[in-house]
UniProtKB/TrEMBL annotation:
InterPro entries: Asp/Glu/hydantoin_racemase, Iso_Racemase_Enz_sf. GO terms for molecular function: amino-acid racemase activity. Belongs to the HyuE racemase family. It comes from Cohnella phaseoli. This is Asp/Glu/hydantoin racemase. The lineage of its organism: Bacteria, Bacillati, Bacillota, Bacilli, Bacillales.
Length: 238
């Protein structure tokens, strides 16, 4: 049985992601590492503090020690730390939003990025830009920061969170060919937002788990997994 270790910076996505794993990878042993202080510290600082980066890399090391065949980083806010950690960890790290960003960059010329936190919005936009650059494409990104939605959710007002998110989606949809949900926890609204805006809506959980499955299949076939090396070149693991 293959083992996947999922590292979380908050509680909200763990149960929905378990459901996706049961559907996409039912025979995989899933181990969760959850430290909800991480996203709290990121939100408070407005960026990724060094202490958060250190703790996150430690959790990736713990995942490797737990016997992970693949580690899944589930938080877009710290995706750039996960990218750098690939240089330090001996097993592949899949970022939950990688496949979503690649799909958006390849398929659409104008992409609205919906987020409730600037700390998630900016890394997601940079990731889509990077994917577009790899493809030689020029993709216009539309800022879809849903101000006040995060506070509504953490304040126990989920209906207000959903209302703000929908209003923001309707606003940015006018200037976009598709909408990307920067936070995996938004995936529950994917269908509703697509129906209300009339635009394709992409979310990360299923696409991320499907990328985990593809990575496991490559490992089973003995194919090397590319990852960045120090200095920006590429090395392989596997």
């Amino acid at each position: 049985m293959k083992t996947v270790v999922a590292v979380y910076t908050g509680q909200g996505l763990a149960d929905p992601l378990k459901a996706v794993f049961r559907e996409v990878l039912p025979d995989v042993r899933l181990v969760n590492i959850i430290d909800d202080s991480l996203i709290g510290d990121v939100v408070q600082a407005g960026h990724i503090p060094p202490g958060v980066a250190r703790r996150l890399v430690q959790y990736f090391h713990h995942g490797e020690e737990l016997g992970a065949d693949v580690i899944l980083n589930t938080c877009s806010s710290v995706g750039e730390v996960a990218e750098e950690a690939r240089k330090l960890i001996g097993v592949p790290i899949v970022k939950i939003d990688d496949a979503m960003a690649a799909k958006a960059a390849a398929a659409y010329d104008r992409v609205a990025v919906l987020a409730t936190l600037p700390s998630t919005l900016q890394p997601t936009m940079r990731l889509i830009e990077a994917k577009a650059a790899e493809l030689g494409r020029d993709v216009k990104l539309v800022n879809g920061l849903a101000e006040g939605a995060f506070e509504a959710l953490t304040g126990g007002r989920p209906e207000e969170h959903d209302r703000i998110l929908l209003e923001t989606a309707l606003r940015v949809a006018k200037d976009a060919d598709a909408i990307v949900l920067a936070q995996g926890s938004m995936a529950r609204m994917e269908k509703a937002l697509a129906e209300e805006t009339g635009k394709p809506v992409l979310s990360s959980p299923r696409l991320g788990v499907e990328q985990v499955r593809e990575t496991l299949e490559k490992l089973s076939r003995g194919e090397p997994i590319e990852r960045p090396s120090f200095g920006g070149a590429t090395q392989v693991c596997g």
